[in-house]
Amino acid sequence: MKFIVSSSALLKQVQMVSGALNNNSPLDILTHFLFDIDKNELSITASDLETTITTRIAIESKEKGKIAVSARLLSDMLKTFGDEPLSFTINPKTFGIEVSTGQGKFKLTGLDGNDYPKIPEVTNANFVDMPSEVLSQAISKTLFATGTDDLRPVMMGVYCQLSPDDVLFVATDAHRLVRYKRTDARAQNNVSFILPKKPLTLLRNIVGNDEKVRIDYNDSNAFFSFGDVKLVCRFIEGRYPNYEAVIPKENPNKLTIDRSLFLSTIRRVAIFSSKTTHQVKFKITGSQVAISAEDADFNHEGNEVLSCSYEGVDMEIAFNSKFLVEMLNNLDTEEITMHMSLPNRAGLITPVGMADEEDVLMLVMPVMISN
Predict the structure, then answer these.
(1) Can you tell me the distance from the alpha carbon of 174 to that of 14, in angstroms, rounded to the nearest whole number?
(2) What pTM value is reported for the model?
(3) Which pLDDT score is estimated for 371?
(4) Which of 17, 72, 249, 267 has the fewest CB atoms within 10 Å around its CB?
């Protein structure tokens, strides 16, 4: 079995799918790429059983067959070439692979491609078509807020709620929460599921601009298709927390401020905060907000005063600066509004001037003010 392929084109494709691999997999074959040769087309698959990604590339061949190729060896080898044709010769009996170039030959041992775990297929599925820009924004706006606690696996993914009216994405780690909604993407029926962080990270990195992403889904898996790429992932099982219950409805105190200025000030002041709590304190009076932080153990302190637009009573409230920086960094409007009620209740951050079809709300829990 033989085929010829461009080294640079092959490298690009194997790098795209390699994020699905688990190098510590107990199954040796899952540290390999599955090559499925079908005449002038090569399908490349990587999987960890929970997430599977497949892409296609044009080749020169007249044959059909499957072979599992060591992902590490192949990737390391391809990185050393420029753009040149590579000739692969595969022995279907021994699964030996010989790669020939104009200057030399390289031999490696593969595995029987028929032993590769079967890729889940779309059965009894509904679907939704989503612009790639919508999917990319939804992932970028929510993924950073997912949890890392293995004891609460449902919070380690992004909750997706699809309906004929809109699509909604939610992520929380119990300290912060992001709710992202789009009305320019709709599903055929009402459905909800929890997508793991790993496939969403892969999608964010590989989905192109101006593409339609088809999402098929059944009771256990989601199937993403766009261009020459197909990604399958298993849902996180379990019931997602009632996120609406933690969003305060009455927030009479509203601070509107320039996002970039606010972000850079928090970053600067937070340098002087406690490395344990990362606390920054806001003292809001009139049209000014004083932002301060201190590390009592080392007698470090930072203070800045910013002008703002404020409606409400004077108040002092403190937050974890790392959470605020991540949230503000994942917004792109010129101004944001912080909605607050009491120093011990969650604060809400919303962007000012977003498009009508897009809605984002970010919630962050306060921290106890240290004196």
Answers:
(1) 37
(2) 0.91
(3) 58
(4) 249
